[in-house]
Amino acid sequence: MSYDLAAKRAQDLEDLNFQMVIADEAHYLKSREAKRTKKLMPVLSKAKRCILLTGTPILSHPVELYNLLKILRPDVMTSYTQYT
Prior knowledge:
Elements: H1 3-8, H2 10-15, E1 20-23, H3 35-46, E2 49-52, H4 66-72, H5 80-83
Parallel strand pairs: 1-2
Helix pairs in contact: 3-4
């Protein structure tokens, strides 16, 4: 499912309680302000297991890793301010 379609159906996806989610092109979730990121973070974080795939290195700023780390380890990444 594309990110755009997933963002439109985010509430439906969140209600499904996935055991595993695989997100290809996960670098599309790096922006905290992006609508798709805001909609899909709860879906990905709620899954029991989440695999994030990307072939695009995030080189611009380390802050771009925050969302991806927050999805994988919300217990460690508790605060954006603390991370930055």
